[in-house]
């Protein structure tokens, strides 16, 4: 559920019931308590409700329209913080990151975005001769302990919420490098062929990352499929490889086949690892 959809849903519940508890919002919207509190704080900011101990009470439904406009203007507020994302689907992200290691060779110049999945990859990188560019503060800190890995921060405007660097300066620096492999993630993947982000700032930076890289590898756990997000990054055909824990949707599988994307599925440790290589119009199984 997108932030603007959650806000509308919370407003509707409040208008019917008069009050709601934080834990009720978290349960109904399937979000963390921290995200629920932040949603209520934003709704209060726009005059929709008043927060009370442990929840909120309804004020004025008409003010909700202001919120929906503000939700699109204040795009940097959309999406969850890095700390929230790093706690979600941790097992799947770990397996995806381990599989991604097999695509990395000594001497590579890598580009890692600020996604939590790329951070999982950075934590597992061996201490070998590599150049790694990133806009993630956490990845920079993680790689500082690896003597043979040369780390280059993109710089730019710092986002305290996402704990990364964005903006024109970060985009400009990317144009100065020839990058072998880009590892990145996204907020959602739609059936319309769109790999998307929760805000325009990160979408625009990732578009430049794609332009600057020879081989593009998307790291996306299964929760991303079917999730509609605000800003478009690119179409399937603009990436080379997708690594995921599971791809059960036949429609997605066929769309990726048409786009000639190499899809690697990584099964849980208790099961045999499965890798599926998809060729245009004719999926086949390898490994």
Q: How would you describe this protein?
A:
This is DeoR/GlpR family DNA-binding transcription regulator. This protein is of the alpha/beta class and 287 residues long. The radius of gyration is 20 Å and the shape is globular. Helix content is 37%, strand content 25%. The chain starts with a helix and ends with a strand. The protein contains 11 helices and 17 strands. It has helices at 3-17, 22-29, 33-45, 64-73, 82-86, 90-101, 116-124, 137-143, 168-174, 200-211, 250-258, and strands spanning 19-21, 49-52, 55-58, 109-112, 130-134, 149-153, 157-159, 164-166, 179-184, 188-189, 194-197, 213-219, 231-235, 241-244, 262-265, 275-279, 282-286. Helix 2 (22-29) packs across helix 3. The protein folds into 2 domains: 3-73, Orthogonal Bundle (Arc Repressor Mutant, subunit A); 84-286, Rossmann fold. The chain has a 7-stranded parallel sheet with strand order 6-5-4-9-12-14-15, with helices on both faces. A 3-stranded antiparallel sheet has the order 1-3-2.
CATH architecture type of the largest domain: 3-Layer(aba) Sandwich
Number of domains: 2
According to DSSP, the number of beta strands is 17
Q: Taking all residues together, what is the mean pLDDT? A: 85
* Rg, Å, rounded: 20 Å
Share of helix among residues? 25-40%
Span between N and C termini?
Answer: 36 Å
Largest sheet features: 7 strands, parallel
Low-confidence stretches: 61-77, 280-287
Beta-strand percentage?
A: 25-35%
Sheet with the most strands: spatial strand order: 6-5-4-9-12-14-15
Topology pattern, helix = H, strand = E? HEHHEEHHHEHEHEEEHEEEHEEEHEEE
CATH class of the largest domain: Alpha Beta
Q: Structural class, from helix and strand content?
A: alpha/beta
Query: Under CATH, the topology of the largest domain is which?
Result: Rossmann fold
How would the global form be characterised?
A: globular
Number of helical segments with 4 or more residues: 11
Protein name: DeoR/GlpR family DNA-binding transcription regulator
Domain HTH deoR-type: 3-58
InterPro entries: Carb_Metab_HTH_regulators, DeoR-like_C, DeoR_HTH, NagB/RpiA_transferase-like, Tscrpt_reg_HTH_DeoR_CS, WH_DNA-bd_sf
GO molecular function, one term: DNA binding
């Amino acid at each position: 559920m997108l932030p603007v959809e959650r806000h509308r849903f919370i407003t509707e519940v409040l208008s019917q019931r008069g009050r709601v508890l934080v834990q009720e919002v978290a349960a109904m919207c399937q979000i963390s308590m921290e995200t629920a509190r932040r949603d209520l704080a934003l709704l209060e900011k726009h005059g929709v409700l008043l927060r009370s101990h442990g929840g909120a009470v309804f004020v004025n439904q008409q003010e909700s329209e202001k919120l929906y406009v503000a939700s699109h203007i204040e795009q940097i507020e959309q999406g969850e913080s890095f700390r929230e994302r790093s706690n979600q689907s941790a097992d799947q992200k770990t397996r995806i990151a381990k599989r991604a290691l097999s695509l990395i060779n000594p001497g590579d110049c890598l580009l890692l975005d600020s996604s939590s999945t790329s951070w999982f990859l950075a934590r597992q990188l061996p201490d070998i001769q590599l150049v790694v560019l990133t806009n993630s503060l956490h990845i920079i800190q993680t790689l500082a302990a690896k003597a043979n890995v040369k780390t280059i921060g993109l710089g730019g405007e710092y986002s305290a919420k996402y704990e990364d660097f964005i903006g024109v300066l970060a985009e400009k620096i990317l144009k100065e490098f020839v990058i072998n492999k880009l590892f990145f993630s996204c907020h959602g993947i739609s059936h319309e062929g769109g790999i998307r982000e929760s805000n325009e700032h990160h979408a625009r930076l990732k578009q430049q990352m794609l332009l600057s890289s020879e081989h593009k590898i998307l790291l996306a756990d299964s929760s991303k499929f079917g999730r509609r997000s605000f800003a478009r990054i690119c179409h399937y055909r603009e990436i080379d490889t997708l690594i995921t824990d599971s791809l059960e949707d036949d429609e997605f599988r066929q769309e990726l086949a048409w786009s000639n994307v190499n899809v690697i599925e990584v099964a849980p440790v208790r099961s045999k690892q499965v890798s599926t290589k998809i060729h245009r119009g004719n999926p086949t199984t390898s490994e």
